[in-house]
Amino acid sequence: MTVAYDVVIVGGGHNGLVAAGYLGRAGLRVLVLERLGHLGGAAVSERAFAGVDARLSRYSYLVSLLPRRILTELGVRVELRRRRISSYTPWERDGRVGGLLVDAGDAGRTAGSFRELTGGEREFAAWREFYGMTGRVAERVFPSLTEPLPSRAELRARVDDPVAWGELFERPLGEALERRFADDVVRGVVLTDALIGTFTHAHDPSLRQNRCFLYHVVGGGTGDWDVPVGGMGAVSGALAEAARAGGAELLTGCEVTAVDPGGAGGPAEVGFRDADGVERRVGARWVLCNAAPVELERLVGGSAPADGGGAAGWAGPEGAQLKVNMLLRRLPRLRDGAVDGRDAFGGTFHVAESYTELENAYRSAAAGRLPSPAPSEIYCHSLADRSILGPGVPAGAQTLTLFGLQVPARLFAADPAGVRQAALEGVLAALDGVLAEPLADCLATDAEGRPCLEVRGPLDLEADLRLPGGNIFHRDLAFPFLDGADGGPPVGRWGVGTAHPRVLLCGAGAVRGGGVSGIPGHNAAMAVLGR
Ligand SMILES: Cc1cc2nc3c(=O)[nH]c(=O)nc-3n(C[C@H](O)[C@H](O)[C@H](O)COP(=O)(O)OP(=O)(O)OC[C@H]3O[C@@H](n4cnc5c(N)ncnc54)[C@H](O)[C@@H]3O)c2cc1C
Prior knowledge:
- The protein is an alpha/beta fold.
- Strands 1, 2, 9, 10, 11, 12 and 18 form a 7-stranded mixed sheet that branches.
- α8 crosses α13.
- It is globular, with a radius of gyration of 23 Å.
- The structure holds flavin-adenine dinucleotide.
- The site of flavin-adenine dinucleotide has 36 residues, from α1, β10 and α15.
């Protein structure tokens, strides 16, 4: 067959767009095929509530892992706003109510907040020492993510800190947390970064929690999580523009139905159903897959799609989060009267995320029960950036996004809608527990009088976005070095290889994928260009 394109990209998520941008600018003929009616995958903004002009980052919402270098090289302008407040965690002890506030702009205030909780200076000193260590690791590891994959020994030498290497790369994270920190709330705040979208616990011998933690503390060489001004859709929109400007053809409403990976030296072929429902085939020298690796396996015909395994067990990738988007008429009042709500909700607001609560939540879910209290973290975009709200939205209104932890897909399998509702009630009840008034009293209503609240569980994310089992990273995150131990297909020097020489991963499922980073898109493009 005639080869029509140099590269066909399966999926128009932000990573597919990054790959298309680099390859188009290098002069290659590039076609992107996206099944949904819009580009961006899990990095999009949408008007989620009928008749309400609020463009919420529907799925992903904060940016840390996207290298400035990628934006510069693609000529993309995106404003990322630093948050002054890192986090706020309400607590209740011996009848006292308070909140641990981490204010990145005021060490004295943060020290006072630690003192109030723990009664001394030790815990804040331990905090500074630990995050000083992760900061040094971030400076050394982050630049390597857009370079050819180092070996384990090379990355270890680059980190050049045996203690950090042991704690983050070799031993279950729980060991370091229990050795370094004494307070249950402080330990929990640290542990949450190891559990985002990942069903695991502090002492998991597979180190899944360490890998998740690492990707949450190395971004940008600092570990900061910034607010994309205009919402996540502004990021994907700018990347799509850059890809178009580079000459790539971007088609939406086109579902890829088959990938023939090509023979020895022969071209690959991609079958897809176009926006008019017509079956088409197109040849390419390279196929880049922005969809998850299990989706690629299905398209190549190598295996059946992973369909989980029901409540009895779960095969294949699995996500473990609940996403709730809300619009409020105003921020709710807190039981902790000493903190301004704009500070508390300006960073990451932790609910029921002490170390013990997170571990208990894991155990409940592993035993087949929704956790209670339900752990979650909450964040208010509109405090940092009101540009996502149209002129018709009242001045005091705020968006709120809640990300629930430790709710694996397997719990939803038997009764998706019923369990989703129960999980929603669980996270809202836990949140109400730290508020001075019910959250329901603060919710705005849409044009039809319904509360502005949208909830998505792992199986909804699978249906919406083809995230397998709702896994937000397409599959378990990998350490950012060449492991060689997993027996899988050769990942190649850029970490994007598959079992098929002409087919590469360019999405979150690559080694050094996951999150809104553009990194696997960049790395797949470098592999094609032979750099
Ligand atoms: C609820 C939620 C919250 C998150 N929060 C954050 C956050 O705050 N910060 C962060 O950094 N990350 C976050 N993440 C993770 C992050 O969004 C993803 O890891 C990232 O978007 C992956 O990007 P991608 O381009 O690799 O893949 P995706 O965004 O998954 O895009 C893949 C695209 O491929 C398309 N596709 C799949 N199969 C086919 C097919 N057969 N034919 C054609 N097209 C196909 C899909 O429709 C999709 O558009 C979150 C994710 C979720 C779901």
